[in-house]
Structures are given as structure tokens and as C-alpha cells.
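Limitations

Structures in this collection are predictions, not experimental determinations, and the ligand pose is part of the prediction. Treat each record accordingly. The example that follows, with NAP as the small molecule, is included so readers can see exactly what is and is not provided: the inputs are given verbatim, and the output is the predicted complex.
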Amino acid sequence: MVDEPPVDDRPFLPGQLLFPWESDDAPAAPKQSPPQSDSVSTATEPEPKLEPELVGEGLDAPQPPAGSDSPAGDDSAAESDATAERSKPVKKKPNKASSQTDVSQTAESAKAESTSPPPAAKVKATSKRRATKRRPKKAAKRRRASAKSTRPSPNNSQQPLKSYHDAMEYIPLKWGAQLPKVGFGFWKVDKDQTADVCRSVIEVGYRHLDCACDYGNEVEVGQGIKAAISDGLCDREDLWVTSKLWNTYHAPEHVHQACQRSLDDLGLDYLDLYLIHFPIAQRFVPFEKNYPPGWFFDPDATNPVVEEARVPMHETWQAMEELATSGLVRNIGICNFGTSQIRDLLSYARIRPAVLQVETHPYLTQEKLLRYCDQEKIAYTAFSPLGAQSYFSLGMADSSEAVMESDVVRNIATACGKSPAQVLLRWGVQRGTAVIPKTSKRERMEENINVFDFELTDEQMTAISGLNQGRRFNDPGDFGEAAFNTFLPIYE
Ligand SMILES: NC(=O)c1ccc[n+]([C@@H]2O[C@H](COP(=O)([O-])OP(=O)(O)OC[C@H]3O[C@@H](n4cnc5c(N)ncnc54)[C@H](OP(=O)(O)O)[C@@H]3O)[C@@H](O)[C@H]2O)c1
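Predicted complex:
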């Protein structure tokens, strides 16, 4: 078991994340990814103070002016920034033509095992937080004014972009964290290609890397990160690295070990975001027996099945909170949760989920879930943003289900002078979500991140959203039985 979390006896405000670097005497938060000169949001360091006027007040209390430079704890400011950002016209200089070099043409086959045993727990429990000293209002206002005066403008100058990273936009989270709106997903990136792919995507300009224990390639992602850093492409603090807690590690005593294993594999000492991968707890598989363990409890059994474990989510979440308060991860969140599960989680969370990651594309627009997250100030990341594309090779989608091939998307792409993939990703970021497309091809890496130099009209946005069919490709309730001999519904 990990140690008891430090007690925070201040009143908990809905929508407020609590982190150890809130107080002056807590360890300093590592620097969050600073947006580049022409990025939209500009907070460069966590603002750890609660504004005096906000302490003890609810979300309906009057809020200071919007801006990501607003003080920590200012939910409405962060939200207003996100909203303003969504509606802000994007006028960016088009980027240069892409390189055509393929990084990999290999088939998608990422399931691989690592047999090294888990490292010993390294997290030191943080000391009990002392009461937060409050900064005078005037000082906070001065900070905001000063930050605004130095805020870089979007890249609408004639300066050529140094990399696609220069055009990136961000979803502001609390404490100055900035989630890059376009990230790169590592699911099904071939293990042998992953280090090169990772270095390449960083070179292209991606700073948001979406990883998971279950993808079986965190060691190789770590090698790519290391190569990129040693080649001077970025610093660790420029990156946003997400990993995910696999289903077999939901019991509180395994959460820390699982996170530490991902960190060790990635060669990092903190994660920017750690997500619960699925709201399904599976029976524990020892790290040294099978890693990543995947879905089967015992793949060598005569009739292998998924074995569930009865672990209440509140216990898993408390262990996730301990990771956050220890500083091992900066943000915690969830994947594949619906509104009822989120609502329940919010009823006991001391640290609210910063991000929900869930399948979203024009055939599964998730309007209500997205709106609920907006209401609860939970950032939203769309996985499989290109729709069926990822599921053909798995036999989980029919070729007729390619949203990229729909007339609506193709006609809009032609009208915009963009590719269907760029239209789908632009639709995703323009409706306020982050998107994390995967590809192993260099030209597609450039294509997929290059979505900040055009804007879809309201009519085009509506037409794309109108394609919704409620079609979910990644549903354990469907693939569980076919692939793993186990009926595993989670969305019903
Ligand atoms: N939390 C979860 O439960 C969960 C579940 C699924 C996925 N995810 C995350 O989300 C990421 C993205 O989702 P995904 O990988 O399922 O799907 P995706 O990124 O929507 O689609 C990937 C597929 O589209 C192809 N593709 C990529 N760019 C293209 C382009 N510009 N034009 C045409 N085809 C293109 C890729 O082929 P090539 O590689 O050949 O280019 C690949 O087959 C994952 O990698 C993972 O990190 C999370």
C-alpha cells in the first residue's frame, strides 16, 4: 500500500484541483510546457495561489477577468480562455510542403511483452500541506496585467513557422497546465518503429504524446524522447506525456507500481497526465509474470478469458490522487467513462479529473458527454479522431464506415484545400477537444498536426456533426466477446 495522502483540510470547491504545489512551502511544480511565441495560450508556470475572493466561494461567485494568466483556482478564467479560444478566428500562415519520407510502412501490431520486474516504489510521500498563504489582490492583478502585456500573438505574422509546434493551440487546465490540442497516439505503433516514430513526431512539432502501458511500447517511446532531447529538439518540460493505468492494476496497492513502471519504461520522473484506461477492474497479474498483461488473465489457459476484479472505483481514484499529491503525475484523469460514472466520481474526488479521453469522431460526436465535461470543467480528448480508420485492420469496422470517405467530409476538404483527415481533426479542435491521431508515416504526421491555418465555417461544422450515427468502434461490449471470450459491456 502507498502511504496515506497528505490531508488537505481546506474547503473543497467544485471544479478545483488540489495539488501539492498550491502552498508556498510545497515543492515547486516542474515547469509546464511553455507555449511558443505564436501560441494562443501563454501561461508559463503554475499559479499556485487561490485568490482571496475565491476561497470558500462556489463556482457562481464573481470571477476575475478571463485569461490563462489568471490565478490558480480560477475555474471560470481557465474556462473563459478555453471558450474564447474556441471562438477565436484562426489566421495562420500556411506551412511549407511536407516531407514525403516514410518512417514506417509496417503493419499495426504493437502487442508486445516486457518481462523485467517492476522497480521498487520511489515516491516519497509529501509532507502535510500547511495553510495556503493568500496573495494580495493587487499583486495578483499586477501579475495578470504583466502576463497579458507579454502575451505573444497568434502566428498571423509573415514569419515562417519554424515547426508545426509554433502554430499549436492549447486547452488551458488548472495551475497553468496547457494541453496541446493536437497530440500523437502510440496505440498500434509497431514496437520496432516506435523510437523513430517518437523522435520524428517531436521533430515535426508534436509535444503531446499519448502513451499507455497497454500499448506495449513505452520503452521505445522513452527511447524516442531521449533521442529527441539529446538532439536538442526539445526539453522534457516542453513535452506533455500521458500514460494510462491498465485494468489489472486498479487495486490501490498496484496503482503506484503501475505508474512507476510506466515512468521507468518511459525514462521519465513525472507524467503530465495519468488516466484510468477503462472503467473495468481486472484480476491482478504480477508485473514479472506478464507485462503488459492485456485482457486475458492467463493467455496460456485452455480457454483464456478476462477475469474481473471487484475493485470500487473510489479506491482506485484515491490511489490516483496520491500519485498527484506526491508529484509523480501532474494531472489525473479518466478514459471511457460516461456521465453517470463521472458524476459518481465527482461526488468523492478530492482531486477532480483534469481530462476525459474517449472515442469521438463525426460518427460518434458525443454531444452530451462533451457538454457535460464543459459544464464540469473537465478537458476532453478525442481518441480515434479519424473514426473507423484505426479499426479496419482489427476487423472492427467495415470499409463502408470510413468517415474520411463521406461526401460531406470530402466536399468540405476540397472547398478548404485540405485533406479529409485535416478536416476531421480541425472539426475536433474547433469544437474544443484535443485530438490524438496516430500514424506511422512522416507525411501524415505533418498533415495531421497542420490544422491551425484554416477554420471551418459554422455550416461546415454543423454538416460534419450531422454525420453522427452513435457508431462506437472501440467497445469492449462488442470486441470483448469476439476477441477475449468474455462479455464486457461498459457503456450500457
Ligand atoms: N483511451 C483509450 O481507450 C484509447 C483507445 C483507442 C485509442 N486511443 C488513443 O488514441 C490514439 C488515436 O486513435 P487511433 O489510433 O485509434 O485512431 P486514429 O488516430 O483516428 O487513426 C489511426 C489510423 O488512421 C490512419 N491515418 C492516420 N493519419 C491519416 C491520414 N492523414 N490520412 C489517412 N489515414 C490516416 C493510420 O494509418 P497509418 O498509421 O498507416 O498512417 C491508422 O490506421 C491512439 O493511438 C491512442 O493513443 C486511446
